[in-house]
Amino acid sequence: MKEKEWFASWFDTSYYHQLYNHRNEEEAKLFISNLLQFLDLEKPSNLLDLACGKGRHAKTLNEFGYNVLGVDLSANSISIASEMTNDSLHFQVHDMRKVIPNHTFEAIFNLFTSFGYFDSSLENEQVCSSIYQMLKPNGLLVIDFMNAAKVISNLVPKESKKVNEITFHIQRNFDGNHIFKNIQFEDQGKHFEFTERVQAIKLDYFVRLLSKEFTILHTFGSFDLKPFEESSSDRLIIIAQRK
């Protein structure tokens, strides 16, 4: 029996949501507001939040007047997000490497470093191919990724965080290709250990990855859409258009 991929196991636990509970709706609303003002999409366009987690970005996109589908591999996250379902906001469990049947979109959003979880470049290409097939002609793709260069140069090797009576012990390292975050903690007399592994993808790789099917229109380095600077920006935000 094939072992579960790390993100399928870790993201589907309540501990994942507990550790990252500081991610708030105000931040999401500010970012989405800036993006939508810049993109100027017609309403009500059909939008996809790809790897939507608990749906905070999808909810905000919907509040701005768009028809939104949020998808994520984590059934637990989708269960939480589905509590926000309405006539123009829906959620479903889905693997981003595959096409969602019978759905096309004017824009697809992949936000908060929800890319590069996989073992191979081929799987990254599968994600891009699926996005291409689901976008309407001239449709837009928005990728919000960490600025890998800055993350690597400022990597904190060890730290501990106490959240709701649980102390998470976190170790980080970079092996030349991936950034690893090992997370260990105790709860109710049991020991837990999970490891996050994200490809340290930089802008030049994204340019090569997207070039066959997309044209990169803009790059930004922050949620308020300041220019991207590899040495100092907190984010790498790419806006690309389907060829």
**Ends: how far apart?**
40 Å
β-sheet strand percentage: 25-35%
Strand and helix order: HHHEHEHEEHEHEEEEHEE
Radius of gyration: 18 Å
General shape: globular
Number of helices: 8
Number of DSSP-assigned strands? 11
Give the helix/strand class: alpha/beta
Contiguous runs where pLDDT drops below 50 for at least 5 residues: none
Largest sheet: 7 strands, mixed
- What is the residue-averaged pLDDT? 93
CATH superfamily of the largest domain: Vaccinia Virus protein VP39
> Widest sheet: strand order?
3-2-1-4-5-11-10
Give the class-level CATH name of the largest domain. Answer: Alpha Beta
Please identify the oligomeric state.
single chain
Describe this structure in words.
The model has no long low-confidence stretch (mean pLDDT 93). The chain has two domains: 182 residues, Vaccinia Virus protein VP39 (Rossmann fold); 46 residues, no CATH class. The N and C termini lie far apart (40 Å). α3 packs across α4. It has 243 residues and is of the alpha/beta class. The strands form two sheets. Strands 3-2-1-4-5-11-10 form a seven-stranded mixed beta sheet, with helices on both faces. The chain has a four-stranded antiparallel beta sheet with strand order 6-7-8-9.
